[in-house]
């Protein structure tokens, strides 16, 4: 499932590509009635909160959640004939974008959009985010910090990669209870997430290793993985830790694979 930086990058890309009258269609048919209402309107605003993308038309919003299988494809005009898997196509005289396989693609009102924001935790990529809101929940919880970071009601946009990597970067045992995370630790984690995720938006990929731990600096081979990016522990089970040389471990936590270094993350 895409993490928050991908959704914010998509919001930017939609806004950059479509600035005039937009043709809206649903070749698959599942969004046809809503598409007909929007066809010929202008995309005036895009917004993102965690893993939720919002496309603003007049007084309505297209709410998109990609889920596990959603995919967005941009291209230059003229648009090719769409396949019957395209849930939503936006097109104008210069570009098109196709949405396939999302968990959610629905037309909602301002009030419905606000309700979604209210049920989500603060997003490190939003200017209105208040990290204290997340910490209030974390500091009262006996749930592991690894699970709390994946709870979108606590903090929005963090997925499995950022969760694993930020805990490693701060030497935090992923099984520590939220109530045992100090305010100073949380402030450092939050600031790091803001910086890492902003870089993710800029580069459209996740890189989490510090300059002294890059392949060039360490004389090691670059990571080869479908997810791309240089990381410390994510999807590196049984490989040596870049810092201590010990084996990276993995385990199931809250139905997702957790990755960590038991030597470096003892705190």
Characterize the structure shown.
With 267 residues, this protein is α+β, with helices and mostly antiparallel strands. It folds into 2 domains: 4-119, MutM-like, N-terminal (N-terminal domain of MutM-like DNA repair proteins, Alpha-Beta Barrel); 131-260, Orthogonal Bundle (Helicase, Ruva Protein, domain 3), CATH 1.10.8.50. The protein is built from 8 helices and 10 strands. It has helices at 4-17, 32-38, 110-119, 131-139, 145-149, 160-169, 183-203, 215-218, and strands at residues 23-25, 43-49, 52-57, 60-65, 71-76, 86-91, 95-100, 104-109, 249-253, 256-260. Strands 1-6-7-5 form a 4-stranded antiparallel sheet. A 4-stranded antiparallel sheet has the order 2-3-4-8, sandwiched between helices. A hairpin with a 2-residue loop joins β2 and β3 (52-57). The longest helix has 21 residues, at 183-203. It starts with a helix and ends in a 7-residue tail after the last strand. 38% of the residues are buried.
């Amino acid at each position: 499932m895409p993490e928050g930086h991908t959704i914010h990058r998509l919001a930017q890309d939609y806004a950059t590509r479509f600035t005039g009258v937009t043709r809206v269609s649903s070749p698959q048919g599942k969004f046809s009635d809503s598409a007909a209402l929007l066809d010929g309107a202008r995309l005036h605003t895009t917004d993102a909160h965690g893993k939720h993308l919002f496309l603003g038309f007049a007084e309505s919003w297209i709410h998109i959640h990609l889920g596990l299988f959603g995919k967005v494809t941009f291209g230059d005009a003229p648009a090719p004939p769409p396949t019957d898997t395209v849930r939503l196509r936006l097109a104008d005289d210069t570009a098109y974008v196709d949405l396939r396989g999302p968990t959610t693609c629905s037309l909602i009102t301002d009030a419905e959009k606000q309700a979604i924001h209210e049920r989500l935790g603060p997003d490190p990529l939003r200017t209105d985010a208040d990290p204290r809101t997340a910490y209030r929940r974390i500091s009262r919880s006996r749930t592991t910090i690894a699970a709390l970071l994946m709870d979108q009601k606590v903090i929005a946009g963090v997925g499995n990669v950022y969760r694993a990597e930020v805990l490693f970067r701060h030497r935090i045992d992923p099984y520590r209870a939220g109530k045992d995370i100090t305010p100073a630790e949380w402030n450092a984690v939050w600031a790091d997430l803001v910086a890492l995720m902003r870089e993710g938006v800029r580069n459209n990929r996740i890189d989490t290793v510090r300059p002294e731990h890059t392949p060039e600096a360490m004389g090691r081979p670059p990571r080869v993985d479908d997810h791309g990016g240089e990381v410390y522990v994510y999807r590196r089970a049984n490989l040596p830790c870049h810092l201590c040389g010990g084996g990276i471990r993995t385990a199931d936590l809250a139905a997702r694979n957790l990755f960590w270094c038991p030597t470096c993350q003892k705190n």
